[in-house]
Amino acid sequence: MKKVIVAGAGIVGVSCAIWLQRAGFDVTIVDRAGPASGTSHGNAGVLAAGAVVPVTVPGLLRKAPGMLFDRNAPLFLRWSYLPKLLPFLRRYMSYATDAHVDLYGRAMGSLLHDSVDQHLALAKGTGAEKFIGLEDYCFGYQTRAMFEADAYAWSKRRAAGVVFEVVDGAEYHATDPIFGDAFEVVVRCKNHGRISDPGAYVKALADHFVDQGGTLKLATIEDLEMDGGDITALVTDQGEMRADTIVFALGPWSKAIAHKLGVTVPFESERGYHIELVNPSQMPKNPMMVASGKFVMTPMEGRIRLAGVIEFGGLDAGASRAPLDLMKREAAKLLPGITYDRIVEWMGHRPAPADSLPLIGANTAQGRSYSAFGHQHVGLTGGPKTGRIIADLVRGEAPNMDLSPFDPQKYAAKAR
């Protein structure tokens, strides 16, 4: 039986492992800390099928400096990291064009449009089904002018086939009263969903993988053995690991390994934050993107999670206070009548390629290794389908979609 190693135990890695296992491979997951120990634990929990507009839209370069100095804006920077960030930032901002927004929308639309169905298929028979909800994903605007200022993004979503309904804030309040009169306009995105506990969900999937005969190994990958430009083994703190095929799904920790494989993707860690209001006196009905703060408020098991914002500061520095304080101020403003037992704080990392497109596919023509990382804000949303695509590719079948925007070899070709 062909042996496959999946490096990484977040939602993308676990999805790859389950679909490879179902395809008949002998699969081992290797991870330094275990399932859902990073971003897959701390994300907003939304199955954001309509996430087809990148952060890098036209006009971002003009707006970004002002946002960095505005304590209420959702963009943060650790200034000591700026010298290291600048080369990436130049590449990142070069994609803030209408043409790239359209390319991104087509590519990500093909990956994300059926995300709810993909999660249901992945979770079927695993015990993880109970965490999947089918609620609308809503966007709340404090004023109609703020909604109208966002017309560009909504026109792109509509063009990509995203189905949504624009309702008056008072109308929305009648069905979800927790926000009171905070929003004049609410956009309800249809065909979306929610994971009520992302960490528990991924752990349940991983438990099923092990129950079905898969192997989960806790080890830190320290290096790669290479021969003629292709990988032959993982070097870990537990010894060498060999397989016929190795899939890299290490999320924000993928850069060094990708570059060693010749996949010289311009790549950064995008730091994300959440706070949780534990045991709240009232819960929202649907996940709500608070448009002014670019964070999502999601009902979860026994808590309300506020997750989002963007900070560039690398993988090594500790959490900053400013993003957490912003979300606390917003929570107090949006939910003035809610009581809760305590607040939990968290900071994690999102994998951010300069063009915002994940890498999904073979790293070399020989197909000894595959990439499955770089999903930025939509790893939870796109993880199951990414896993299915990787399983198809490893068994020699071409998925029925254009994978060229995600091809790791587009970076390998540039390096040569």
From TrEMBL:
One of its GO terms (cellular component) is cytoplasm. Residues 3-393 form the FAD dependent oxidoreductase domain. The keyword Cell membrane does not apply. Keywords: Oxidoreductase. It comes from the Bacteria. One of its GO terms (molecular function) is oxidoreductase activity. Pfam families: DAO. PANTHER family: GLYCINE OXIDASE, SARCOSINE DEHYDROGENASE-RELATED. This is D-amino-acid dehydrogenase. It comes from Litoreibacter ponti.
